[in-house]
Each structure stands twice: as C-alpha cells, then as structure tokens.
Amino acid sequence: MEVIDNILNGFAVALSWKNVFFVFIGVLAGTVIGMLPGLGPISAIAIMIPLSYGMEPASALILMAGVYYGAIFGGSTSSILLNAPGVSGTVATSFDGYPLAKQGKAGKALAIAAISSFGGGTISVFALMLVAPMMASFATQFGPTEYFALMFLGLSAISSLSEGSTIKALISAVIGLMVASVGRDLLTGTARFTFGSVNLLDGIDFLVIALGLFALAEVTNLVLTRNKVNTGNESEVGSLRITKQEAKEISGPIARHSVLGFIIGVLPGAGATISSFLSYIAEKRISKNPESFGKGNIKGLAAPEASNNAATSGAFVPLLTLGIPGSGTTAVLLGALLVAGVTPGPLLMQDEPNVFWGVIASMYLGNIFLLILNLPLIPLIAKILYIPKRLLISLVIVFCLIGVYGISFNTFDLYLLLGFGILGYVMRLLSFPAAPLILAFILGGMMETSFRQALIISKGDYLTFIQSPISAVLIAVSVLSLLLPLLKSKMKKS
User: Fold this and answer.
1) Is the pTM for the entire model greater than 0.85?
2) Which of 95, 161, 296, 478 could anchor a disulfide with 100, C-beta 3.0 to 4.6 Å?
C-alpha cells in the first residue's frame, strides 16, 4: 500500500501543469539535440543546469531527465536516415535501421524505432517503480571481477557481428582493442601508444571513431558512387504502417530487451551503449534467420532501440538510490541535483519523496510525449531523404566536423576523424565489419581496468574470476557463447 501511495503522490507531482510543461520542453529539446551528431545528452544537460537555477528540485530533475531520454530517443533518427549516430547508444540502431532506409522503408524504420523506444521506456519505468531499491542492492554486488566477466561476455559475442567471415570480425575487434589502449594508463599514469603527442594522452573519443567509421565512410562511398544509377528506393520514405505480422515479430524483442536493457542500465558504467550492443547480439543469436541481420531486419532494429531507452531509466537506480552516477550523463545529472540542494542516496526516498517518485512518474508522461511528438513528425523528419545528395553529403560532413570539434575544440581530433573515415571506407571495401571494432573499443578499456583492479584486490590470484558466483556464471555463459557456433558447425557437417 505504501508503494501505491508513493506512486500516486509521484503522479500528483508530475501532472501539475508546471511539471507537464517541463517534461514536454525536456523531451523536445532532447529529441532535437539527439538528432545532431556530436551534441549528446551530456552537453544538453550541462546547458540546462543554469536554466534550472531557482526551480524546485523536482521540476529541475524532471526537466533534465526528459532531456536525457529524449536525446537517446532522438539519436536513432540520424542513425537510421544518415548512418550517422547522434549518440553512442544508437550506433547499434544503424546496423539494420540504415539498410531499411536504403530499401525505401525509412518511414517504417522510424515508426518501429519510436514504438520500440516507447515500449522500452515504459516497461523500464514500471520496473523502476517496483524494484528500484532491490536493484540498487544487486548493483552493489558488482565489483571489478564481475565487471570484467560482464565485459568478457560482451566481447565473446563478437562473432555474431561478423558479416560472413568470423576471422575478419576478430581482426576488426583486435583493431578496436588496440585503439582503446591509446592514451594515459588510468592506473599508472604511463602514456601508451601516444608517440609523444600530447593530443593522444586522453585517448580517442568514441564519437570520433563512430562518426568516422560510419558517417564519413558512408559519405565517401556516396561521393565515389555518385554516377551509379539510383534504384529509386533510396530517397523514398515509404509507408509508416506496421502490419500485424510485423507488430507480432517486434513485440518479443521489445519485451525481452526492455528487461535486459534495464538490468544493464542499473550497473554503473554499463549504460545504453553496451546494453544496445548486447541486445542486438543476443537477438541475432536467438534468431532463426541471423543472416538477415545487418540487411534490414526489423528485429535487429527493435532490440537495440528498446534496450537503450530501458537502460536510461535503469541508470536512475544507482543515481537516485545510491548517489552513484553510472555514466558521464548521470554524473552531470548528479551535479545538477546537488546544485538544486538534493543529495541522492539511500535516504532520498524518505527525505525527498516528491523528487524521487515525481521524477519516476514524469518518465511515463515523457515517453507518451515522445511517441506523440515523433510519430506524426516522421513524414516531416524523413523528408531529409529528399534533400539532393550533394547537399546532404555537405550537411553530414559539416555536422560531423562541428560535433567532433565541439567535444574538445582541438583540430587534431578532426585529423583523427578523417583517418577513421578512410579506415571505415577501406574496411567496407574489403568487407571487414565495423561493428566489432566499435564494440571492442567500448568494452576494451573497461575490461582492462576491471581485470587489473580485480588482480590487485586478489593479490594476483586468477581464481578470483571464478570464485564470485556472478562472475563464474557470466564467464561460463561467455565460454558457451564462444563454443556454440563451433558446435553448431560441427553438427551441420556431421
């Protein structure tokens, strides 16, 4: 009864005209910013902090939470239409979203992304209401050993991201791990693979690699094939209508990966990027038609979209209940909360019930606003495909340059962007998949840090990785994941 009373109290806070307005402004601003490559939720929330001065704490957090999940929602648009992920959590969306757009089904792809995001966001908010305190306790069970096992599980699935050749996927992954090792060693402070350049001391930003490998490589391909006869489908928006069969097909992935995304989002440091990759890989693994992934499979679009939005809600569990920010974005949110005079932690539910339950209830409202805003606007947004190819190429290049320069104000990053653009195009020519490189880059740094921390804590005892029950289970699943394709192959031959 107490939980129901708290939820009703939260809706009373969220449904006040003032907070409804802040939810609307937050998701609108987040959606627009998420569509622009380079301007992710961190920048958007940082901009909003001065605007929140003088606001009631609940209203301030409701506004910024709306910006956060609105940006993740909006990031799918540029991934689907331009193959230029607006935020890192939507890279996996482009794997099947962009092929659908090229087949003249951009409208359907955007509709599926909107519905999947709504499903993931709604299911995760429901879970957030019911199990937030319990999940916070679960998250505290994860130390360096468990994090290493989780990252190892992610890397073990790299063969699922191959587009034919597993060897090529593994080579891409090795390149990703090599890139992840560039920069200052976080534990010892030693510079690694910087070649004496101070520009590489902080490593290479994810956005530089993602925009180079996907957006610039695509632009290069468009420029070099400009004289190729167009099939006529690539500039079509197509129908938004989703058939009953398609709705049935995506309902399973939405339900499954909303839960998975929420659980991964609860873990500090995991977040929407890792959850979307793991969901895509998991959906491909269980599919009866895995070869269609990467070619416009609607399940491959629904799974990461549901997962990344669910992870954004999950990230609020450690932030609100433990005061631990799980990502750069939630770290900025933590700062905004402190500025508003609210201290997140175990006593937040007791001391500030209006803030805790009001924010959670506002997420329901925010997800409805996002669906209402995005579905009717899809025909308008998709008109971007009608822009002449020469102008579109110029716009993508400009957005990439502004986005990358905006994160560091360093021209060196622009040269890196060009380098990764060339690498992406060469990989495309030689049929090397880019997805394993990105996944290895994301997981590599975290996996190395967790591995070394676990060994330091255990005084060099490697058995520590199987002594923890959570770690042992994750490593066992990883080994099964590695062996399963080999066993399947042998069974087919026999």
Assistant:
1) no
2) 296
